[in-house]
Amino acid sequence: MSQPPTRRRLLTLAAGTAAAAPLTYAAPSIAQAARVTQATQAAGATQVAEAGPAAHAAPRAAAGPIPVPATWSVRPFPLDQVTLGDGVFRRKRDLMLEYARSYPADRILAVFRANAGLDTRGARPPGGWETSDGNLRGHFGGHFLTLVAQAYADTKEPALKTKLDYLVGALGECQQALAEHGSPRPSHPGYLAAYPETQFVLLENYTTYPTIWAPYYTCHKILRGLLDAHTLGGNAQALTIAAKMGDWVHSRLGRLPKAQLERMWSIYIAGEYGGMNEVMADLYALTGRAEHLAAARCFDNTALLAACAEDRDILEGRHANQHIPQFTGYLRVFDQTGEEQYDVAARNFWGMVVGPRTYSLGGTGQGEMFRARGAVAATLDDKNAETCATYNMLKLSRQLFFHEPDAAYMDYYERGLTNHILASRRDARSTDSPEVTYFVGMGPGVVRDYGNTGTCCGGTGMENHTKYQDSVYFRSTDGDALYVNLYLASTLRWPERGLVVEQTSDYPAEGVRTLTFREGGGRLDLRLRVPSWATAGFTVTVNGVRQPAAAVPGSYLTLSRDWRRGDRVTVSAPYRLRVERALDDPTVQSVFYGPVLLVARSQEQGFRSFSFYKSFTLRGDLADVIKAEGRPLHFTTHGLTLAPFHLGDDAPYHAYFRRAEPVVVFGTADSGVPNRARNDGLTFLDVLWDQAPFTTSGRFVQAVRTLADTWLAEARFTRAERDAVVAAAVRANLRS
């Protein structure tokens, strides 16, 4: 069935004429934990003149963090408690910081001021979808608020704080102007947007895209930016504005029948609401207003929610980024209500995407859409992996980890961050464009396209590169354990424990990672993530003494001791070259070096064919045929350069290649027998070399003989072919 044009396509057509940030959490005080207990009012679309001051009671005046839910066993550190060290992550961050400092606030505010009838001060809108008549205008401003709030939380630069406060103050003026003399006047004095309320009215009448775009998506971005300005930037007014917006949301949706809401949220794009349920639950956690939690629950997309709670996969054909953030929102509603359906649905949804619908870089979707479960090789082209979708999958992964610290969530987080997100920022300065990707193609010979001012991925892209440190370290809620999730150069300051821990690392390059206790100490469980790719070993020393604890890939290794100032923990996890096979066609593969996706530099538009097995020694190591260059993380094979994908350039690349191993060959010994595959697509040589390394030539020959007997028993070899394969193994006389 054909799909409506993507938003990216519409942007391309219009070019000639014209996403969720990390929040600061704190343990709830008694006052914060108190909740409004009166029944939620059934509010209609009340005109400004009919709404009294009591309907807009201001939340607490002082800026502060969101209370930590009782459902969490793990919590993050605030952005300002983790500082990035030198390296590629910091360099990418610095490029976005320059943009945050330089881009004019008045351009961001132009569409809001115009809608409120205020002087735009001669500023023109940013462009892209953020134009004076764009149906998504205002969303980019919400993202920009988050960008500046994150940048300030990270750097504490006074100029960024001034800019943030200016943005918030101007939005407050727009909200007040709309309430007092909007044309048309909004239904509630809390309304704030860069366009009239018409889009919301049309949505309630089931108007489809592109007549309207995604009004609640835009609302979410503005609300999220305001909450980040409050929790990250310390702006108390931002919460007041957001609380009034929340009252307006409830006034519109709280009166609608459930069936009408469900139909609205099922509409392609027009019904996309981003993380409205998440932001309303967060708002409720800050204000205690029952209306805000009731509004969060108005965003239940019931059919999909129920299917995922029952572990029924109905994702095929659905818009990926329209639905991913809904599940982060369901977790936040679960945090506030304890209703298990929300939690179970989010976990099951994650499992339907990560693995079955994930490309090697960690992204998902083709042309913004979820495709069939397991369809990877069949969907490779130039419009895979919408960057917004990975942004939201990372948010969902960390929220799931807070509830259950399963290393699988951080394994995925590392993949998506190191490959997709790090690769999504061009390695070039710009003060007028975020220079980030929209789609990231996985087909052969594609090129990344950067820019995206005013688009959804331009907005989330601004956020991505100013919060790299948000998941490097977590802590247990009781303060007795420190999780080291990512091995990025960074410094953690944990004032409640009096701890300062510095991590030195060349990540994503290979090398030893060292954690040094610079200040403080005491009893603490240090939980070190053992990545799933760390199959070549994972060793830990404390002050030079190797620790005996067993390290299992895909888990956490715990060191429990009384730590002292000056203690040094070194972690070594050697990288290995490996391939990952597409689920639907195992001959279509990607090459990794440890956690790093390597891509072949080539302009060819068809798959490149690689053959490796004939050059293997007994160790069965790809290093026998993929040779290191002089540059870090660069290799050569089959006359091509393999480069780390995170380099932000515009060179054509191949993230996947076609594996060609037609005949069973061992070194120079050619058996002449076809390398036939099992029903699962794995060939004789695949299964054999998955058993490597072999300690002796004799053990290798025995493995060949055993497997050849299996192939014979399953009628994949004739007796003569079986004998020819074994004879070739003996004749090859392979060495280590």
Verbal overview:
This protein is an alpha+beta fold and 736 residues long. Helix content is 37%, strand content 16%. The chain has 21 helices and 27 strands. The strands form six sheets. Strands 17, 18, 19, 20, 21, 22, 23, 24 and 25 form a nine-stranded mixed sheet that branches. Strands 4-9-10-11-16-13-14 form a seven-stranded antiparallel sheet, with no helix packed on it. The protein has a five-stranded mixed sheet with strand order 3-7-8-12-15. The model is unreliable at 1-5, 9-25 and 27-61 (pLDDT under 50).
Main beta sheet strand tally, sense and closure: 9 strands, mixed
Low-confidence stretches: 1-5, 9-25, 27-61
Count of DSSP H/I helices: 21
Beta-strand level of the residues, as a percent range? 15-25%
Beta strand count: 27
Radius of gyration: 27 Å
Q: Report the principal-axis shape.
A: globular
Terminal Cα separation, in Å? 54 Å
Which structural class is indicated by helix and strand composition? alpha+beta
The helical percent reads 25-40%
- By oligomeric state, this entry counts as single chain
What is the mean predicted local confidence, pLDDT? Answer: 92
Protein name: Glycosyl hydrolase
Pfam families: Beta-AFase-like_GH127_cat (PF07944), Glyco_hydro127M (PF20736)
Signal peptide: 1-26
Domain Non-reducing end beta-L-arabinofuranosidase-like GH127 catalytic: 81-470
